[in-house]
Protein 1
Amino acid sequence: MNSIGKILTLTTFGESHGPAMGGVLDGMPAGVAIDLDELQRFVDRRRTGQAVGASSRNEQDRVELLSGLLQGQTLGTPIGFIVRNSDAHSQDYDKLSDCYRPNHADFTWQSKYGIRDHRGGGRASARETVARVVAGGIAMHALNKLGVTITSRIVQVGHVTDEDKFDGAILEAASEGDTLGGIIECVADGVPVGLGEPVFGKLQAQLAAAMMSIPSVHGFEYGDGFDMATKRGSEAMDVFEKREDGTIGTATNHSGGIQGGISNGEDIVMRIAFKPVPTLMREMLCVDHDGNPVAVHPHGRHDACVLPRALSIVEAMAALVILDNYLIRKTNEL
Amino acid sequence: MNSIGKILTLTTFGESHGPAMGGVLDGMPAGVAIDLDELQRFVDRRRTGQAVGASSRNEQDRVELLSGLLQGQTLGTPIGFIVRNSDAHSQDYDKLSDCYRPNHADFTWQSKYGIRDHRGGGRASARETVARVVAGGIAMHALNKLGVTITSRIVQVGHVTDEDKFDGAILEAASEGDTLGGIIECVADGVPVGLGEPVFGKLQAQLAAAMMSIPSVHGFEYGDGFDMATKRGSEAMDVFEKREDGTIGTATNHSGGIQGGISNGEDIVMRIAFKPVPTLMREMLCVDHDGNPVAVHPHGRHDACVLPRALSIVEAMAALVILDNYLIRKTNEL
Amino acid sequence: MNSIGKILTLTTFGESHGPAMGGVLDGMPAGVAIDLDELQRFVDRRRTGQAVGASSRNEQDRVELLSGLLQGQTLGTPIGFIVRNSDAHSQDYDKLSDCYRPNHADFTWQSKYGIRDHRGGGRASARETVARVVAGGIAMHALNKLGVTITSRIVQVGHVTDEDKFDGAILEAASEGDTLGGIIECVADGVPVGLGEPVFGKLQAQLAAAMMSIPSVHGFEYGDGFDMATKRGSEAMDVFEKREDGTIGTATNHSGGIQGGISNGEDIVMRIAFKPVPTLMREMLCVDHDGNPVAVHPHGRHDACVLPRALSIVEAMAALVILDNYLIRKTNEL
Amino acid sequence: MNSIGKILTLTTFGESHGPAMGGVLDGMPAGVAIDLDELQRFVDRRRTGQAVGASSRNEQDRVELLSGLLQGQTLGTPIGFIVRNSDAHSQDYDKLSDCYRPNHADFTWQSKYGIRDHRGGGRASARETVARVVAGGIAMHALNKLGVTITSRIVQVGHVTDEDKFDGAILEAASEGDTLGGIIECVADGVPVGLGEPVFGKLQAQLAAAMMSIPSVHGFEYGDGFDMATKRGSEAMDVFEKREDGTIGTATNHSGGIQGGISNGEDIVMRIAFKPVPTLMREMLCVDHDGNPVAVHPHGRHDACVLPRALSIVEAMAALVILDNYLIRKTNEL
């Protein structure tokens, strides 16, 4: 299941140390202008080596669009694209071919498929997400035209919630060969009323599935989220009010912009929790395929915290889900 | 989008005050014995009126199976079923036809479709979930045969985490016409290694989508969930160990039974956060379709806390996702 | 796979001698008025006993709509419906439980599922199609509003192509305990330009799948169909011309209203070939589950030719496909 | 809708004169050995320039596999691939940018999307099928392992049914600047009993959809097909018999290997009708976007008859459908 979306569908492929990552974005409406430089910049935000404590692997991540555009305009046909894997030190991983690292996908993928590409995590690598970001960047062009803006920011790293102290916390953990997780908040502004398809395609259900499919994500919430559990009904109420332009809005946004599974016109607000990077820069206790303990010291290049790079991934997934639902909404009336 | 699942698909229908709720469970393997009494008991657990602070609406919720079985055995054909809506006081809702209640689906559904069934929330009512529970109860029969057990329990109600005090907290809120949310923990035991379909069909993504589609749910996490954000990599590590029976397992379960999007054989552990019931038993500030304020005092019957009734819904959704993935897994090898 | 359609999806259920046939039509746009009498009349056209040489089984086939409508208008929610099986002589089929009849589904269904409902063909019975006709009748309401008309007629019965002689041919075959097949032509008029989703969702591909899923259908063609194989390019050419209203049309319609997988505004014309009814009204050579020959004389009620009853089924399938594609087309542009 | 298949899904992309054609084959089981030379040979069969009367466009059509394999074995991850478009004379098509050719997709695609890639037909070109053949060739490796063989042959070209005379007929038409259609018969041998998913996923429905999605196809039939319409039930009967190995088979195969929508173990036999190539090698009467007549003499390279090249396309589509159903069948029992 390497596809997501109903009308706007993204299918991705690629192993971390194979020839290329890539994808097909199908269902993109015709006549949308795509600025290739802007798209490349969006993809560059995700790239390795930009953030404090990030791995030194430095892919170019140059996007090659192979179809679906004519003179910078979408054709309504599928947009195929690839990003070459130019800088892969596959030999770094040779010793891992018979080894299951803790909190990695090694054991489960080998058990499921009876075979795996152990080099750099293969398809289980976060490198897989580059194809999501390319597609999300394309979707973003359409959303911008519609007045929708999607932004995200890190709101927590480890125990730290003060933005100024994130870099320090990451560097400190990295200096000890350790890693950190954290929380990203993503906001979609300008989403029209009416997106989301109850009962199983509620907007929050689709957003949750999209976010939970990102490597390392362990939790999703929208609006007041888990805090909702602690509130009384009277405290969580988003009272309606008439706006100056005659529209109806809510005075507060505990609901995070979604009610009854459908966007209500307020900001859509969600938070995504990431586990700490499983690869430590120190000896890790692994097992071989027979379950016997093996001590492994990683030689690959790994981030101490993925959150700085994950911002564009989160935004990309939000963009894909919201644009898909914008298109589906058109089918609600004759 | 009133369908969920890929091989085992559930499609549901029904408005709260229409003739019946119902569904079609397609893709159920042939030859599974279904105990109709056991199924009815599973559905009864969800029924109104069982829990403290619950509404007095007392549906019979008698399951009528219309197809897909012969002499108590599944045929491999779709299982159609209905549950009649026998006890609907539709007139209680007449005054709500031109009114948007806060934190309800009234405004968004009316805006999306240009029409809505205002009686008892129509399709946005939690009554919709009865069809999920019927289907989940059927799926549970197959899972039991496979050695999988799914259980759930309330772990938090409002600020209260002590199980003995849940009833008291609910009654207290109810006595003030107020309502409470909370958190349910669900555990799937006996799930074999290998369920889940990366990259977009990761087991946690499918479970999240299923749970987030339940009315009132605002958050989903698995394993250490949002707490993962606060942990260092070295603290979150599930070290592998060889079990006495020669299999490989993990000494701890921070990962909640899923690694790389695929079950690893440990317990699958997830937590689902519910918002407090939006209908208070006191006057609520609504607006009419023009946005003008209207004070409404609800006359329908409503729970003060949905969690006691939500247990079977959560289990049903887990059962549907896990059985679907069990079936899909069979296609991984020739 | 008891569902068809992408945005407008129909899921059906029901065995011939079970309690009821039924279905769920999801994705129907909101605000469409449904005339229940007209719907019932459309379903009645399919009913047993209307046509010459038809079986004497006389179901009422009363449509019960269970959801998705309010005061005769669609709500945008799934439309659940059932048709009770009131007149089932199940005991007529007892001797068939251990017997495979030629050209029936007995052998393949038993082999596939390890179990089957042998009574009246179970789910393999053409009675299954009643749910299609209900759904198609609902879709027809929306199409009529859009100016689309779907009609069909029998163009061949056995070797006979003269309409006046169809009844005679059927009666003659029936008098010998034999049966006939034939060809139905279906025309959709008023279909706008632009329906169909290349490359795998070409309109003809979707129509073919829908028609080939009808019991007994062995062939599908559109436009000049198999005759196209015998034509030179210069003979098959539909030259474009400018119409009086300024639109572009074709002078001929060899293409059957579809070019490049997309409707071109001309009549959509297709022909569907049906095999003769496999149940003869005389002794048939069957085998038991071990392959040993068994002579069986059928006691159930069976048509000598299904085509008169198949007209509404063909129209229903065409309606579902065309309305679905009308809705999908809305997503082609932002 | 550029995807086909349920468990084994192919998604394709590419315009005729864009950088590359390509696709993603997802759901391919793990551990299947792929012989790259054999795969290339399968793709080469489709290539331009092999057949009498074929166009002189001579693509290399070298398959580049980008993911999903390790040391020649499938990983169970999506197989991404591209075929570069090396030999595109785009300028040949400049005059067609404002012109609708008869029996082409120019008019419908422009009307649907408001934009089109006119060069060589863009995505509506039969060049699109190269991605299908690559995917089909991969599927064929798995089928061969399972004992399934798929073959096809031309059985009719224009009015000619004598195999020795096909080349002569094509050359004759080509010499007059004209073109021919014809019929291909495809046979799948060794298909196990039980493939196909009633009621909407009947094997013939899936095969029909796959074949009808091939450019130029106007008709599909299986078994006795349209001839079935002319037969009496007693003439069409495939009587069961016990085989020497104890299995049950049929003495004849009017049913074409499918009964009740499910394979019965006999050869699956289908016939696919192709219209004549719409581009004549002489002046054609077109219209411009305003509907005014324009005479166009084509300069591109075009086949006089597509059937020789279509054989591998037909086989590829059959392979994809059959393997997909082989995988789905595994989910029929617990």
Note: Chain A has a mean pLDDT of 94.
Protein 2
Amino acid sequence: MELKNYIGGVWRHSAATEFATVSDPATGEVLAKTPLSPPSEVDMAATIAAEAFVDWRRTPPVKRIQPLFKLKALMEDHFDGMAEMIVLENGKTIGEARGEIRRAIENVEVACGIPLMMQGAVSEDIARGIDEFMIRQPVGVVAIVAPFNFPGMIPFWFLPYAVATGNTVIMKPSERTPLTMQMGIELMEAAGFPRGVVNMVHGGAETVNAILDHPTIKAVSFVGSTAVAKHIYARAAANGKRVQAQGGAKNPLLIMPDADVEMTTKIVTDSVFGNSGQRCLAASNIILVGAAKEIFTPLLQKTAVSRVLGHGLDDGVEMGPVISGQSKERISGLIEMGVREGAELLVDGRSFTPPSALKEGHFLAPTILDNVAIDGELSRTEIFGPVMSLMHAADLDEAIAWINSGQYGNMASLFTTSGGVARRFRYEAQAGNIGINIGVAAPMAFFPFSGWKDSFFGTLHAQSGHGVEFYTQTKIVVERWLKEWSRQF
Amino acid sequence: MELKNYIGGVWRHSAATEFATVSDPATGEVLAKTPLSPPSEVDMAATIAAEAFVDWRRTPPVKRIQPLFKLKALMEDHFDGMAEMIVLENGKTIGEARGEIRRAIENVEVACGIPLMMQGAVSEDIARGIDEFMIRQPVGVVAIVAPFNFPGMIPFWFLPYAVATGNTVIMKPSERTPLTMQMGIELMEAAGFPRGVVNMVHGGAETVNAILDHPTIKAVSFVGSTAVAKHIYARAAANGKRVQAQGGAKNPLLIMPDADVEMTTKIVTDSVFGNSGQRCLAASNIILVGAAKEIFTPLLQKTAVSRVLGHGLDDGVEMGPVISGQSKERISGLIEMGVREGAELLVDGRSFTPPSALKEGHFLAPTILDNVAIDGELSRTEIFGPVMSLMHAADLDEAIAWINSGQYGNMASLFTTSGGVARRFRYEAQAGNIGINIGVAAPMAFFPFSGWKDSFFGTLHAQSGHGVEFYTQTKIVVERWLKEWSRQF
Amino acid sequence: MELKNYIGGVWRHSAATEFATVSDPATGEVLAKTPLSPPSEVDMAATIAAEAFVDWRRTPPVKRIQPLFKLKALMEDHFDGMAEMIVLENGKTIGEARGEIRRAIENVEVACGIPLMMQGAVSEDIARGIDEFMIRQPVGVVAIVAPFNFPGMIPFWFLPYAVATGNTVIMKPSERTPLTMQMGIELMEAAGFPRGVVNMVHGGAETVNAILDHPTIKAVSFVGSTAVAKHIYARAAANGKRVQAQGGAKNPLLIMPDADVEMTTKIVTDSVFGNSGQRCLAASNIILVGAAKEIFTPLLQKTAVSRVLGHGLDDGVEMGPVISGQSKERISGLIEMGVREGAELLVDGRSFTPPSALKEGHFLAPTILDNVAIDGELSRTEIFGPVMSLMHAADLDEAIAWINSGQYGNMASLFTTSGGVARRFRYEAQAGNIGINIGVAAPMAFFPFSGWKDSFFGTLHAQSGHGVEFYTQTKIVVERWLKEWSRQF
Amino acid sequence: MELKNYIGGVWRHSAATEFATVSDPATGEVLAKTPLSPPSEVDMAATIAAEAFVDWRRTPPVKRIQPLFKLKALMEDHFDGMAEMIVLENGKTIGEARGEIRRAIENVEVACGIPLMMQGAVSEDIARGIDEFMIRQPVGVVAIVAPFNFPGMIPFWFLPYAVATGNTVIMKPSERTPLTMQMGIELMEAAGFPRGVVNMVHGGAETVNAILDHPTIKAVSFVGSTAVAKHIYARAAANGKRVQAQGGAKNPLLIMPDADVEMTTKIVTDSVFGNSGQRCLAASNIILVGAAKEIFTPLLQKTAVSRVLGHGLDDGVEMGPVISGQSKERISGLIEMGVREGAELLVDGRSFTPPSALKEGHFLAPTILDNVAIDGELSRTEIFGPVMSLMHAADLDEAIAWINSGQYGNMASLFTTSGGVARRFRYEAQAGNIGINIGVAAPMAFFPFSGWKDSFFGTLHAQSGHGVEFYTQTKIVVERWLKEWSRQF
């Protein structure tokens, strides 16, 4: 099945000559072919989106949110269908996929509040008889470039805010997992967005560069690896665009000796191995402070080995495959590197053999490396796979110093029952999303998703008020109306 | 048909011994009997609402808004049905009723944004190591007392915010127009609000006093006449409650000589005669400045007489009856008073004879009194009927002085093409809702409905952020966690 | 020395025939006579304030804050002088007085931000071509009625916001401690507030009632006892005014067994005995949970007896007298009542004998009653003196139930090192100001001072955004300017 | 006089080998030599600023604003001195310089409100028992690069917010006008900022590039030409920094036939010729609509020729020189180009001869070119000098189309008395700062300075809330504290 682009309300065959293959990571079954659309199709989408902008921008916000309310209802209606599609193209479990769609819907919900969120400010009498106010007007045509790991959620970190504020959008989903957003676009169409307001162009690197260079596109939102995020930020900025580019991570998670044993073990394991480790908020470096080492090491080990792998749609399955064979190989190589750097292989997931129906699946079971060196390469490299690195710190000071020495700043989590440890941690840990007894500190849709350091490039983050600010331009109006003029009557 | 109370998710027969009659104002047909519930039923509702509060308050805001999203969808689905019910029990036209329901829905839409609207504030380091934050927690059981003129809209100025913020509610609709809210409650039930969260108790003055005196009820929202609003404010305050009580109005509307002729004539007439004049934002005193007198007097006269009266559900009908025979009599008496005070009767709507099918209807056609004296009694008395008082001011200064001499401050409207006149008007006119080339300056749901002077008693108004502030208590938390405590590990 | 009223920028002799005596509570030395001004002087102040309002309201906010910036600088310059005056008329220690002035200044600092805080909101295109905005305009003449216990701070919870938002003010300080505000007014005069913007009328109950009844006064802010606060709320509301009335308290403070021993002992003692217990945020009922009883009872006892009493201006003094002989008697009576109710007198401060120079002072040393019954009368009566009631709860559930059974809701404090206990406490404790390891949870000036239950009557609290909302009326403007009108050119 | 850098609280001799000359543009008198500091000195400043950040960041906001309050007072005290210094090094008139300092102070005033502006948000119960909040933490070391035309104001668009939010700063003033900020830094030193919090490094292009490349510097704020702004944005973004870069402008100003004649003539002339045209909000293309041509052309001509040139410190002088001989030459060339493109030279300011004392001054009198072609090069080129281009549009449609065809979007102004024209203009004109009967629509300090299109690169603008957002990183904290943990007691 060759996918089509959606431009100006029409599903259009791409003139692409190259394609990416979409396959079920658990079975290897080919699901679709994604066209790597040429720049000319980006140009067509930009032109049509710019035309649609003229009227969409003049549509009152209270009208613009009506399709969003319908979209919310439609996504609830197609909740299971969307979740299943995520499982098929991404490999995660149905439970994980459901959580993902819930998060997507929450962003639609928040964007339904645009009439209030978009309000500007007024000051009467900045001087006698002179008033000043600030309104927000949309930016124009904006683009969203999304990754493979949350095909149903990440587009919605941006899309609802972009359209609700009056922009028209070009969406480029991951070429490896484009099917969920195909459903998403179909639902948006059914929800009643006018033609040209939401467009989707499939593609790869060349397509992205065409977006970055296109003069009609005023803003770019991106989530992906740090290397690409840097490229996006630099190139889009050189072209004068607004940019928000979210990169990779290497999230530390710190366990204190006073942490709740049962809860911590469960949550930590879920954080590391959930979504097969393929999320930018997965915990990776587990730092055990002092006596926590003895308490938690065996428990984590035990919980890891008990994790049930399989096809994400099957009952009882707790973990699916990684996205591709290439990815599996890369992760295996990193495990090897960890061992070479002196780490001890407590649990080796590489030997996992799936049942025959899944023999083409890219499975890798939970893996635990102990005594990973804080100054080694593994401790600094994003694995994006189900690998837990255990590290042992003497005390909180050392643990926080380790955290803050890292290149990334997406998340830092802490497990403790102590209010004092928690306060110090959240005050000092250099990461934008902090979890206290939380394994995956994903901000709710009404908070900005706040990566720091090399996990984010730009100024304004995804979601909520940051989204509104990013997708609108402030316009200041200073008005003088002489009182004398009212005297003519 | 005897109406039932809705308490704790159950429709309950009232032990009332007195009843109000609900009838179609256009035909006199009896539609229902409203029980004037005794205090014991208020007490039952308060007790059950307080029990429901325990869990509802602990339900996360993101969950509490789910029934609101459903309610929005259900109200869209039952849009026509609700509008028709309004026509039947209130008498207004179907177009007016539709506009009313649209406004009701808009408030539901805004309240869907509660997770964001309800956010509190945090300050890190108010002193070294000490943080402070403010959260909002619901007030408890709150009551809403609504009037007859907007049976489908005014309850929604309050209800969505009250429940979304975590309160449980006792609703008392007008005993004359309770049927629309009966539908409203049925839709809320279908939307999934838990039992006891929304309750409805029918009744009259005694029922209201029971609400004002009940210690479990923490806040009262009211819309009605100024006399009753004053009573509500005084009595509820004496009982220590939060109160917001919206009263009557006598809205001035000012036409400048430079006003757009066609648009102004149409809008002004609609403002005065729409809803048969029975709205708190109806223009009543039309002040013609200078040369506007000659331009607009004949046009207003002509437009008034052409207005088509009839049953609100019939095609082409532009105006329905007033609510009751008693009301019709009162209005006729006020017209008489105007004439006695020296006004000239340009158009006399009292002589209108309805078709025989509507001969029991309380019809009164558009009436225009010219040269109404600014210092007479008519110019200061709320008519709440389709009567336009024309007044002639020499200039803008005089007109604004007239406006500001009034007792009420619900609305003041201006018609002009001049930016300078508009600025001066909005700066100086003492009313909380200002229209510039707008006949009925009803604030959108994301703004507070801002009556001033004797049009409002309390501090925080209906709708939006004011609603959230009114229905929540701020709770300040100051926290100290010594850094030393984190050193034990 | 007979004090004068300050009306319209002039210090005016009052025609009062009755006077209150201002004396140093530590020595009995008479400092001044406060006139109990008759209603006619309230009327004069209201009239002059209304005249001043005309221009002050039209003075741009950026200009209105200039005297506030000067006032901040002047208060820093006269910091010690003001603090000493507080000591003289109130009796507290110089350290406590300094803290008080610091808080007063912080409110001036926050009110310097009025241009931003007072901004309204704008929505472009609520419908095609129609815009809506909300501005804030001042209320008019407002009154502040202040208590004796923080003569230099409480007026500033209101004053800076009231004037910065464009209102003119009538201030009535406590007739027992009017001297600090006399200095305050002198500084405001020096700071450049125009005549009539700030006025001060001395007086007692009759003066207050004149304020509550005066039609020109639109809003009343009060801090005092609950009985008077209720009166203020009821009477001002019956007169249609905005009201915020802060009442008394009976603050519980809960100590968990895991609390930091040294810090807790010190802070708890300071909370109970600081300002000789005469503050609405003083802890009164100290609830020791479980094993905390054994740990803390002897330490609290020891710390209490070591407290050094004397004249607040003398070095090393940690506690001053209570405000009056009458007050001392009342407190002694309450101690007696506690004993009658079965409490054990661990420390009896009634026997304290001051040095001869202070023999006329109203001294009462720290007193501790143990095993005070939660259902007795003492545990529910505000003492407003240096008396600590110890109570012993089996567990957190019981302790929180005790707290929530109380009539008041000004403050509830908790001492623990556990994050879990803290979260539960702040979620469940029914009080508006929560302290976690904080003895006196006074909100910073940029948060509302959030009393609950019988500690507060009204809706909007003192300080910050609540002050701005309380002292301004929202005005909504809906504007339509037809595009066609721009075509004439 | 060779200027020194100010690093770590010490005035340090620069090792620069190249220098820029600072001279009085009106007399040519050399005032100082500005070192073009080498990268090593940027590095030293960055290192010291990073050290100072450690403690400054931990200083509570209420403490951090204390030096700002002192700075406000000091700037008022040295108001005239600072204004005179601006005149000397920049050439503008003393009146213009005073206005500039007033604007600088206003930004200090707004930044005094940081404790409130910096507050984060809290949501209780994002799920049962889980809370989430957002705090703002400073970015670290930030840099400001300022232009010559407002040496005393533009640094304060950034500085007060940067330090108040807890960052430490490296300031690079224009090498042509560094003296005013030298005074500014001296005042900041006197105001009590700790060493290393504010630093100043003089320099040129190489110095700026060192700033853009330095890894310790996390954010860059710039105002200057569009060419340099683009460079700043691209290079700083390529280095992963936050950037806000304000560029040039070519501001259209539209006069309708109904505009107030006297006021418009005066304000328009002031906008074009004020500061000798050297401001980014100077009107440049004056578009006369329809009959406005006949009314205003002669009046503008007359007003232009009457403008009194001279030394900015001399009484009665209305206009000073341009910044340099080079600049004068460039402007003269542009006038020539305009003539070549077909414009008519109504007033030629190039022939102006200053009095002998100013014969070395770079004077150029007001110049008016009529019938400048909208599609010519002059109409698109920023002149940055006292040159008015008159253009004649048939109607409003044409005029707005002309405006929106431009490359820049700093300001668009309109003169009219019609509310309808104003609304349409502010809705449609593509510029971020709109003036209605305002010649220089500079936003007050409590609004963002909102350039659009090629007048701005980045997302968040200077001043107020945008400044706070730009200079802080959001940090999200998600907290779970199990209720069970509180059961242990």
Note: The two ends of chain C are 72 Å apart (CA to CA).
